[in-house]
Amino acid sequence: MSYIPIDSSAASSSTHQRPTNDPAWTAAGMNSNNSTPRPRAPHSASILDGVQHKVEGFLDKNSGQLPMYKDKPYPSALSRRFRRWSSKRTLAILAALLLLLMYWNGAFTGSKNSVWSFYGLGVPEERADWGKRRQEVVKAFELSWDSYAANGWGECCFDEYHPIAKTGKKMAPQGMGWIIIDAIDTMILMGLGSRVDQAREWLQNTLTWDQDQDVNVFETTIRMLGGLLSAHYLSTEFPDMAPTTNKDPTLYLNKARDLADRLLGAYDSASGLPYASINLQTRKGIESHVDDGASSTAEVATLQLEMKYLSFLTGNTTFWERAERIMEILDNNGAEDGLVPIFVYATTGKFRGDNIRLGSRGDSYYEYLIKQFLQTNVKEMVYKDMWDETLAGIKKHLITYSQPTGFTVLAEKPNGIKASLSPKMDHLVCFLPGTIALATTGGMPEWKARGMRWWTKKQDEDMQLARELTQTCWGMYKVMATGLAAEITYFNVDVKKPPPYDPDHVMVPDSVFKDTSAEASWRADFDVHPTDKHNLQRPETVESLFYMWRITGEPKYREWGWEMFRSFVNHTAVSNQGGFTSLGNADRVPPQPRDNMESFWLAETLKYFYLLFSPRTLLPLNDIVLNTEAHPFPRFDMGSKFKTGWTRRPRDADGHVVGAESEVEEKKKLGGAAVQGGKLAVEADKTV
């Protein structure tokens, strides 16, 4: 069965075909003519050498700490003397003006913003070999993938893999390809053509979605559908990045379309919100078996990038319309200050409970607001409006500061927006600082964005908040014995009177982390509970490091990433070429292994490390948008075929939806009416 891959009447992607000498392809291991993979360099010293036989102790023997690289600004070569006094005077005046301008912008006052970034220079780059470091990431990926391929493929494939026991299990009778599909685009980016061939052969000859299996709609969409769509994008737009012997250009898209057709059944609820699960064979949606049948808010609102891109590729507007309708339903609830509860009923479209957080079950709702705006080339202003409202709400209700040091904390409101604050940060929350930076500049470098007419004090404040939260997330790594963050971290905050968001808050100097002793005062700000010390190889912090590096140009974010990568290698490597495992306790050395390799270790964590250490020309942020599983899609213009099919309802001075209460009363009078397609429709009485 074959699908038409692209509708000629659909919109066109804004991503241009690469020139033959694009540095991105050099970085990906291609010759300048983009025809064949570049031969690998002879073996050189690697931090991975020997690590499979000894999990720890591969760091330099002379130092227990990772190497630090200081900024090395290049001195000016200007040394010639000026013969005329007028020239000296002119130079002196210019120098004085420059010093005055630098003073005005905070060069000598400990300003929150980098003056070098302001002038478009970026912080002077350290002399690290980032190409070599990037190759270390490739080696880590190869170890992980090859271990899975050798032990987890079996007669079909394990969807869950235990690298120590070298066993696993399937999620469906014939396997779902959970790990395989999630990793394909990472292999393409790394130029691993032979391994991509291996995955393509399995896709073509073995994978079937026609299985009697219930699957989570959200996870299947972001991993499987997203993975197939991004593999299609990279393999068709950049075919020489990872050349393969299988040349069928429709393979990924056909599999994606078949899967999406089956997922559509989940959207057939009374409200239009998707059920939590779907049976792939019957195509029937299934309510959640927990949480009183409610779906996760993040899960129903993290399908849009994938479904919209599929509509763009196929010209079928159904995927777009069904996913877009979700945003209208959620927004019509009129959540105060844009902060939504973490559960919502698919049957009614109404929120369940008052728990507000940007961690689990809430996180990617906020992420996809700004990314939908960017995906369609900043044309759908409704999502920008929602993002702006949300970020203001985050500052107003969720930002506070720890004691005694004063780290910036993104807290939770488990009992509602008016209730007390809980100073808890899931590791998942660490996606936010990078997303704030992305939203603030649109993906362009900070120095360039600062020159735009739309740059105001608000953008200054947003970038500062991004910097502060990134530092807090980095502290969550530094406080642990292995250098790898816990799944959940609490903070020492005066919860009876938590300090409110302060745009003039002075950021904690990074130098506090130089004190690595157990008695370091900054450690008192962090409180990791014994049950929360596991590390699941999560990507959110390195994701933010990637965005912060690309946008600010500050090299510390790369160095933090390198230190983090070395901690993963040092403490999570499995002996005998076993790859890497998550940890049951990351606050002891040697750590307690968990014996599980998460699929997002390959799809996200290692991909973000690779991108962090790569040139900016590889997947430029102004050309692409990454879904919540780090699968890249191109930005595109909607053209005449696609449009934003809804507008926000008017709000009163307090931000409440005008007429919302009267609509509820009207529904009660009608005896169980439900809002469908923007109109009131009377339903027969039924038990929910």
UniProtKB/TrEMBL annotation:
One term under GO cellular component: endoplasmic reticulum
Swiss-Prot/TrEMBL GO biological process terms: carbohydrate metabolic process; ERAD pathway
Keywords assigned by UniProt, alphabetized: Calcium, Disulfide bond, Glycosidase, Hydrolase, Membrane, Metal-binding, Transmembrane, Transmembrane helix
Gene Ontology terms for molecular function: calcium ion binding; mannosyl-oligosaccharide 1,2-alpha-mannosidase activity
Enzyme's top EC category: hydrolase
Region annotation Disordered: where it falls in the sequence: 1-44
SUPFAM superfamilies the record matches: Seven-hairpin glycosidases
Binding site for Ca(2+): T628
Listed transmembrane segments: 90-108
EC numbers, comma separated: 3.2.1.-
Obligatory cofactor(s): Ca(2+)
Keyword Membrane: yes
Active site: E219 (proton donor), D363, E487 (proton donor), E540
Biased composition range(s): Polar residues: 9-20
Pathway: Protein modification; protein glycosylation
Disulfide bonds: C430-C473
Reaction(s) catalysed (UniProt annotation): N(4)-(alpha-D-Man-(1->2)-alpha-D-Man-(1->2)-alpha-D-Man-(1->3)-[alpha-D-Man-(1->3)-[alpha-D-Man-(1->2)-alpha-D-Man-(1->6)]-alpha-D-Man-(1->6)]-beta-D-Man-(1->4)-beta-D-GlcNAc-(1->4)-beta-D-GlcNAc)-L-asparaginyl-[protein] (N-glucan mannose isomer 8A1,2,3B1,3) + 3 H2O = N(4)-(alpha-D-Man-(1->3)-[alpha-D-Man-(1->3)-[alpha-D-Man-(1->6)]-alpha-D-Man-(1->6)]-beta-D-Man-(1->4)-beta-D-GlcNAc-(1->4)-beta-D-GlcNAc)-L-asparaginyl-[protein] (N-glucan mannose isomer 5A1,2) + 3 beta-D-mannose; N(4)-(alpha-D-Man-(1->2)-alpha-D-Man-(1->2)-alpha-D-Man-(1->3)-[alpha-D-Man-(1->2)-alpha-D-Man-(1->3)-[alpha-D-Man-(1->2)-alpha-D-Man-(1->6)]-alpha-D-Man-(1->6)]-beta-D-Man-(1->4)-beta-D-GlcNAc-(1->4)-beta-D-GlcNAc)-L-asparaginyl-[protein] (N-glucan mannose isomer 9A1,2,3B1,2,3) + 4 H2O = N(4)-(alpha-D-Man-(1->3)-[alpha-D-Man-(1->3)-[alpha-D-Man-(1->6)]-alpha-D-Man-(1->6)]-beta-D-Man-(1->4)-beta-D-GlcNAc-(1->4)-beta-D-GlcNAc)-L-asparaginyl-[protein] (N-glucan mannose isomer 5A1,2) + 4 beta-D-mannose
InterPro entries reported in the protein's UniProt record: 6hp_glycosidase-like_sf, Glyco_hydro_47, Glycosyl_Hydrolase_47, Seven-hairpin_glycosidases
Family: Belongs to the glycosyl hydrolase 47 family.
Protein name as it appears in the record: alpha-1,2-Mannosidase
Source species: Thielaviopsis punctulata
UniProt lineage: Eukaryota, Fungi, Dikarya, Ascomycota, Pezizomycotina
